[in-house]
Amino acid sequence: MSEGMQNNDPRDPLMIAEEWMKAGRDVAIATVVETWGSAPRPVGSHLVIDTDGNFEGSVSGGCVEGAVVAEAADVLAEGKPRMLEFGVADETAWEVGLSCGGRIRVYVERLG
């Protein structure tokens, strides 16, 4: 798998995170904790990210994954979780592509 790229592995992102951690990789998990409007992924959806920027899963169907991966790098470096919010009312709405009117809150934390 190329660095920073997602593959088409249909397995649960949590299983993948467990494999990555067993291999000695530092891993963060992003979880959709709240949605409004036409958010493309339901509450409980996961994205797992390692320190090399590899990721699996989805929190928005591609709308905000890049921004979440960047925030996860900071979470892994600092060890402090953070809550992210994206939506049409947010100044980053057009940048991350949630122009459909949905909003999501995503909690990012380090695993292990």
Automatic annotation (TrEMBL):
Pfam families: XdhC_CoxI. Residues 20-87 form the XdhC- CoxI domain. InterPro entries: MoCofactor_Util/Proc (IPR052698), XdhC_CoxI (IPR003777). PANTHER family: ALDEHYDE OXIDOREDUCTASE MOLYBDENUM COFACTOR ASSEMBLY PROTEIN, MOLYBDENUM COFACTOR INSERTION CHAPERONE PAOD. This is Predicted sulfurylase small subunit, molybdopterin cytosine dinucleotide biosynthesis. It comes from Nitratireductor aquibiodomus. The lineage of its organism: Bacteria, Pseudomonadati, Pseudomonadota, Alphaproteobacteria, Hyphomicrobiales.
